[in-house]
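Write out the 3D structure for:
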Amino acid sequence: MPTDPAEFLHLNGLQVTAQRLAVLHVVSTLPHSTAEAVARAARAEIGAISRQSVYDTLSLLVEKRLIRRIQPVGSPARYEARVGDNHHHLICRVCGRMVDVDCAVGATPCLTASESFGYEIDEAEVVYWGRCPECAAKAQATARGTIPARGRRGGAEPRLAKPKPAREPAPSTLSSTDTQVSPGAERRKHHGQ
């Protein structure tokens, strides 16, 4: 996206409005956000914007291919401004953190259908699921009876685990560029395959 969002909208045949600029800015700065998260952030940025205006703007920007809609099965749609390339997403099964993963390199037999049945194939869907480093470390520490120091990534020094109530939610480890997604299968569309 060019550095001037108003020019970007204008060059793509869209009227420039405060609502469209706010939504585009939020999606550009908070990738993988839900429509609700976009609405909250846009309201914080411009004061008032209706939920319907956010949904309409997201739909229009997706239709114009200025942003991408990601629809993990069983979860609300996510939006990102990274378009025009073929990249995947990696989603943590535990906390829902989602990150971009560049396209696979080398031989990629799963991206080529063994039979096209006459279809003109222009996309492939790929998903990676697993545990993010923080959730994997927490699981390993729990198994050992220790938990990593809060707020550290990777090789945090373990400390004794304190018993937790059975229903206490896990502390959030999401950064401003991460988003929460419910565990389950995600269908990813990839252009250029």
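Residues 151-193 have pLDDT under 50 and may be disordered.
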